[in-house]
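Protein modeling request. Please complete all fields; requests missing the sequence field cannot be processed.
Requester role: graduate student
Desired output: 3D structure, token encoding
Chains: 1
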Amino acid sequence: MSKHTPGPWRTLEQGRQWTVIGNPYFVATVQGQGDNGEANARLIAAAPELLEAVRLYVKLDNDRRSGCDIADADWAECHQAASAAIAKAEPKS
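Delivered output (93 residues):
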């Protein structure tokens, strides 16, 4: 099990910098020009969800490689978790 601050993490804009806050701990401060600071902070804040989505994918893929049948619902859950993590990481348009 990872020893990182448990998710979910969120971003908080503070002037020209962004703070990433875990539950309830400080995770990081991000500075950047223009939209870079926000984009980097969003990517950091999405890290716990991205990690969980990758773990789920690897588990399903290992099961598949071992000859287990994987239900469509399991693949759908994996896809949904990955899509949600990507949406959290990408800058809002």
